[in-house]
Amino acid sequence: MDKDNLYKIRHSAEHVFAQAVKELYGEDVQLAVAHISDTGFSNDAKWSVKLSEDDFPKIEKKMQEIIDANLPIVQKEVTREEAKEMFKNNPFKLEWIEQWDAAEKTLTVYWTGDKYVDFCKGPHVNSTGEIKAFKLLSVAGAYWRGDANNEMLTRVYGTAFGSKAELDEYLNLLEEAKNRDHRKLGKELGLFTFSDLVGSGLPMFTPKGTFLWQELASYSESLQKAAGFEQVKIPHITKTDLYKTSGHWDKFGDELFLVKSQETDDQMVLKPMNCPHHTQIYASAKRSYRDLPIRYYETTTNYRDEKAGELSGLSRVRSLTQDDAHVFCRIDQIEGEFTIIMGMIKKMYASLGLEFRARLSFRDPETPEKYLGDEETWAEAQRTIEDIAKKLEVDYFVAIGEAAIYGPKIDIMVKDSLGREWQCATEQLDFIQPTRFGLKYTDSDGQEKTPVMIHKALLGSVERFLSVYIEHTAGNFPVWLSYTQVAVLPISAEKHADYAYKIKDTLRAAGIRADVDDASETLGNKIRKAQSQKTPYVFVVGDKEVENNTVSVRARGGKDLGAMSVNDISERIKQKIEDKSMDL
């Protein structure tokens, strides 16, 4: 089913939900707002009774009755006065009506049959009978209009599809996603933790998690160094003046952590991004056209005061580390720099077994107040971005309204093993900040000109990337990213431990991370422990292996590679590590 029709079905299913709860609970529920997404719908409402998932069967039964009645869904235009009279007892709807009326938008309501009406812009299907399959999924809290200063409402999530088969496929996907949830796997594999004493959204990584984090960051840095990027280092705090000049203060001031000095009157902030700092390194010396491009990179942590209700494991945090970089170049160098960056992106994601397409994130002309700079500058930047995407033969689509405040982007949309898309890497074109900071270089004609700034991240937020990658792999990391690459298991701790430790020492000398499990328990239990930790290789050693100076090798997933010499299997594993192979 095409996207537009699916949107209509889900939007209409949300109206059926709203009608059902009003019929069942009456004045105990006050409807506020609906949200329709690529995966389903949600409804925010104020409930005077406690709602739980235990109530879903009763609500779903009522929804099915409304669907079976095949009630017509009819749009009607209304005046401001008519709308206010219809929803006079609902402050949430009245607020929406005032907003739409002030924006001079046409006010419309949708009737479902002759009993239920809601203020809504649509679109919808023609009748409730067109909703073929639906399911209520979960319940959570949500602030009215996403503002923590507003009232907390109850949000119910649901979904709808054009057929039961599609719904069943999606529900199976949800179940698999639960099994792969990075928060669940992170705990089981001992990768990261959170503490109430430290604070929400502030992850801490264990040695195992830090190893994974560092290997990814180091790989990103190695690609950047090879491409001519030079490392810089900046402080974690700054005067507010920096972000007032860049424009971030006006646009994102409510997301900044403020820091007050006891020695001076300076108002400081924890840095939420790195680009303004990097402009000041560029500005610290005179630049010639011969110096460009200048490429800075840095893997550094930023801090953003995210709303508590939006924090989620590693995917949405308050301390996020970016493998960030900024290029200062001439206009004639833009295409070459984007090509270099895209080459790094392609190499990195191929090494990680991830497919992607590009999202060209453009400015929304309907909301110019959200962006810095003039329309002509944006038009030039967006033309440049799209021309580059075409020349690089990148599979792309355009998304209006997803641009950064200072320019359009090529965002890398990674597709995981469950078919979900996540935005990770990015390369962004910025004509605005160099102008705001007065950056200059002397051109070949002796005239001062303003450089162009390109923002780049290969992983994006390392924490967010890890949330995606853990779920993509279900924790089965390639051997080069595995904390323990080989588990050496003596059949008898008493008889075979010495040989096992000798094997471990040999492997470690070869650069392979190996550990011995010499616990006094059955071999089956040891194998299950290694499997639960997703260890790529298990070497079993017993009398036969000691006698023949071999190991019995099992690869993750149950593949038995048989008896091998330590030298042969070591060479095989080292080659897998060197190639950053996804296979064992």
Could you please describe the fold and organization of this structure?
Helix 1 crosses helix 2 (56-68) and helix 6 (182-188) packs across helix 14 (462-473). The chain has three domains: 3-180, Threonyl-tRNA Synthetase, Chain A, domain 2 (2-Layer Sandwich); 205-238 and 273-472, 2-Layer Sandwich (BirA Bifunctional Protein, domain 2); 479-578, Anticodon-binding domain (Rossmann fold). The relative contact order is 0.08. It has 584 residues and is of the alpha+beta class. It has 18 helices and 27 strands.
End-to-end gap: 39 Å
In total, how many beta strands?
27
Taken from the alpha-carbon principal axes, the silhouette is globular
Question: Roughly how much helix do the residues carry, as a percent range?
Answer: 25-40%
Beta-strand percentage?
A: 25-35%
Second-tier CATH architecture of the largest domain:
2-Layer Sandwich
Strand order in the sheet with the most strands: 10-14-15-22-19-18-16-17
The number of domains is 3
Mean pLDDT: 93
Give Rg in angstroms. 28 Å
Low-confidence runs of at least 5 consecutive residues: none
* CATH fold label of the largest domain: BirA Bifunctional Protein, domain 2
Figure out the total of helices. 18
How is the main sheet built? 8 strands, mixed
The CATH superfamily of the largest domain turns out to be: Bira Bifunctional Protein, Domain 2
CATH first level of the largest domain: which class?
Alpha Beta
